[in-house]
C-alpha cells in the first residue's frame, strides 16, 4: 500500500528483499560504499517499479568521483556547522566511564564514521530526485572521473524498533516525538547497540534539536545539497509524467514524492546529528568558551 503522510511507512528490510530488489540492494551498497541499504531505498522498495527507475537514473551519477566530492562538501558543511554552533561535550570520557572495551570503543567510532559517510550521499540523491520529479537536474555533457574503489566498512548492528528492549523503545518514542518522524532513523538504530551511550548522546542532542539555531542549521545543510545538485555530472530525468508513462499509478507517484520530500526535509538534520556524535567522540568542543556576541564584531577602537 502506498505511504500516506503521518503513517509509518512500509519498509522492505534487507533480509526480506528477494529477486530484483535484492540485486538492486547489493548494487546500492557497493556503489555508495556502504555495508547497509539506507532507509529511503528500503521504503522505495515497497513500490518496486519506482526503486528500479530511480536507481537507473542515479546509477551513472554515483559511478563518478565528482558525486562523492559534492557529497563531501555537504559533509564538511554539516560538521563545520555542528562544531561552530552547538555546545558538544566530550562523550569519549563517558564511554570510558561506562567501561567500554577497546573493541567496543573502536566499533562505536567506526559506526559513527560510517553514518557520517552515508547521510550526505543520501541527502544529495534525495535532493536531486525531488527536483527531478518536476524537471531535468544536473549538467549534461561534462567530463567525469570514475569513482575510486571505496573502502570496505563493517556493517553496524541495528536495534530494530520492534525488537528493542523496553528502555530503548521508550527512548525511541521520545526521539520520534522530538523529530516528528514516523520512524527511528538509522543513526539511532545503530547507536542503540550501546544503549548507555545512546542515552547520553540523546541527552546532549535533544536540547540542540529543540533550538531555533538547529532548525536554521539543518535547513542550511539541506539548502547546500539543493544548490549542489546543479553541479551533478550528467542529467537526471525522472519526472512524475515519466513515472506514470512507465506504468506507475498516480497514488504511487504521490507516495514517492511525499517520501522524498520527507527525507530532504530531515536529512540535513541527520547530517548535523551524526556530526555532533562524531565531535563528541573526538573530545567535544567545550575546551574554549563560546564566542560572546560582542567578540564577533570588530572593535570600534581598532
Automatic annotation (TrEMBL):
<feature type="compositionally biased region" description="Basic and acidic residues">
    <location>
        <begin position="152"/>
        <end position="163"/>
    </location>
</feature>
<protein>
    <submittedName>
        <fullName>Uncharacterized protein</fullName>
    </submittedName>
</protein>
<dbReference type="InterPro" id="IPR019714">
    <property type="entry name" value="2-haloacid_dehalogenase_DehI"/>
</dbReference>
<dbReference type="InterPro" id="IPR029032">
    <property type="entry name" value="AhpD-like"/>
</dbReference>
<dbReference type="Pfam" id="PF10778">
    <property type="entry name" value="DehI"/>
</dbReference>
<dbReference type="GO" id="GO:0019120">
    <property type="term" value="F:hydrolase activity, acting on acid halide bonds, in C-halide compounds"/>
</dbReference>
<feature type="region of interest" description="Disordered">
    <location>
        <begin position="140"/>
        <end position="163"/>
    </location>
</feature>
